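Now for a typical sample entry:
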Amino acid sequence: MTRKTKLMLNSASSLIYQMITIVCGFILPRFFLSFYGSAVNGLISSITQFLGFISLAECGVGAVVQSALYKPLANNDMQEVSKIMKSADRFFKRIAYILLAYIAILMVFYPLITLKSFDYFFTLVLIFVISISSFVQYYLGMTYRLLLNADQLGFIQYSIHSAALILNTVSCILLMKAGTSIQIVKLTTSLIFLIQPLLLAAIAKRKYKIDHKIQYAEEPIKQKWNGLAQHIATVVLGNTDTVVLTFLSTLENVSIYAVYHLVVNGVKQIVVSMTNGMQAMLGNMLAKNETDELNRSFSHIEWFLHTLVTLVFSVAAVLIVPFVRVYTTNISDANYIVPAFAYLITIAQASYCLRLPYNIMGLAAGHYKQTQWSAIIEATINIVVSVVLVFNFGLIGVAIGTLAAMAYRTIYLAWYLSRSILYRPLKHFLKHILTDTICVVLLFGLVKLFSAFFTMGQISYAAWIILAVKVGCAALLSNIAVNAFLYKREVSDAVKKMRHKI
């Protein structure tokens, strides 16, 4: 199987997985709101975010392990692969034990925070059942998942994840309609998801001959702790808003945040899914010293991602409030219509996605130590700004904190890439940002100018879909027009590739 074929399979399966994730992600919270109310939905979101603090390996040490595997896999050096796998397995099992201790502490103290709204035992049991799948993820199958990803075989895990999501959604809906408690519903979710690491481990063990008894004198995974430090900062960044709102605001505000985050995170995950496989491909090029091909591939990836991010997030910014209005119909225990917050959180997540080409390149090159302080500063900015502004501005305050933090690191990573990896002028990044801005301004100008055309006649999913088609077409045309003027060669190459495939 060629590198290009693997990339296409990874991208396609990842996109399908993310679409299923988005659909299922919209369905279940709506049922939670209907059957259990905004407070319970906010409680679930809050607990999930607190448990997110211990997902340390997902993009931290896990990314370092993947980077370490690129070269030995390219050289078919199974001895070195075995050393890396053994070291990684030891580390993740330690993380699993830390996770157990963290869950125990959370079960004791977190219910005290929500005593005004929920019984102590109610919250304790809910934490326990939600945490099961998190623990199993670290204790079973993590290293094998990383091995498959590093070998550009991520489509295997995406297929398994997709099947599990569909099964979970159907099971949860049936249980809720049967009048089952929220604890039983979430326990079912955990049991379904624990099947995934077991399947991945079984597949990887059949494909690779890993020597689990191998010994090593020198640590095979370099920059392990730098990767961990970066990801701790990333986890803090991703969970700060919900934590700040939990302690300094209300669970109803947490629920409002969760609904809007559901939308923008869904859009973000679609974009991220298009990058799955790119890191492994670029890492393979670096391992083989294919410098010219690396530079060409990166330039194409950069233009593609900037264009995609601008297109989907400008559409999201226009459509998010109308969607939430439809989504929360007949939900009256909280005010879910907060336009200023919607725009700020959309811009913040767009900023995150604009950094993807630069972050992917940095991960592929294994520059964890060099960039770790930027991740720490980003998390610090989010915490400080969010805490300072939440008292006077509530949801909008935490959104400003998130936007300020993400904008900082996006600029930093683009600058770092130009100085330390590809050695090219920063003007390439600035030109992309200018193009992105023009496209967004043009779309909002069209929506404002023809406001009667871009209006929902009624509050319904059908009316929203019609509006989405209108806005999507306008955004696509404005993006094509701007890019055809500023990026003629890239647009021409894209058209040629599409014609060739057709």
Summary: Residues 223-440 form one domain. The chain has a mean pLDDT of 84. The chain is about 85% helix and 0% strand.
